[in-house]
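WARN retry 2 of 3 for item q-0093 after timeout on previous attempt; input resubmitted unchanged.
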Amino acid sequence: MWASFGGVSDVASVPVETQLEAYRPELTGYCYRMLGSAFEAEDAVQDTFVRAWRNFDRFEGRSALRTWLYRIATNVCLNMTASAQRRVRPMDLGPAGSGTATHPGEPRPEQIWLGPVPDDRVLPSAGDPAEVVAGRESVRLAFVAALQHLPPKQRAVLILREVLAWSAQEVAELLDTSVASVNSALQRARATIASADTGAEARRPLDEEQQALLARYVRAFEAYDLTALTALLHEDATLSMPPVPLWLRGPDDITAWMTGTGSGCRGSRLVPVAANGMPAFGQYRRDPDSGHVPWSLIVLGLSGSRITSLNHFLDTDRLFPLFGLPARLEEGAGQPEQAGQVA
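OK item q-0093 returned
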């Protein structure tokens, strides 16, 4: 990736690209929260690194490298959001539909949808437990969706102050504004987020009860035992399927959909991954000829011993490679991991 840049500068005997790469995960997480798309976040970080590499000889250590990179990344994200439509979830577009619907609606353009992101692209694999929990909480789908309701600069202020714990003075210097302006923007952003439905439970490592819940979900889904599956759902559980706009609320409508129009999922297999600090699965539908082919990336929301959301993302051509999922499952092939080893 860096070879095309044509050279390596030497600062403290550490190549520039090595210094920059150390910040990739946290910058990707920051840009993902700003933009709501894993693909746009990776583009933004790459643009940030290109700009930093080209101007490294003028950096001269006048500020911390991390601060300088965040300044560049913030400007890149603000430029990207200037002409972009706010990314949404199906729940933002209208009321819940009926489980007896015969068609989920015409797919909407990818550019409007909030998308999932792999945990390993945006979250540290280890560290202070409190920071790990806070990181997982701040990339949950509902929270990132709520961030998209904020004007871009308010979004940046909230993420920098509340998620990354920067001081008001540091944020003011990064945004070339005053501390008073930062505090005012933060107050308005907090009010907006407080009025949004971001879910109440922090995404801590799954306890034994939730690990067992996931194992039961996998067994019920792969057996297409809808009675067992319905028993796992919260009374207000939701099901969504971007890029189609239909979404459902409640076990009755979800079960009706899976019994009727969605019954093509019968015979599916699930491969566990982790997305947005939440358990997730690559879903493979049965291929009439042989094996199983990609159908959706499922991101589950959990609360206690119940499933609160089933988020099915259908853009498998892009999402499965992003999550390192195989292009198909052959008959008799074992799963890469056991269900329940996610998160």
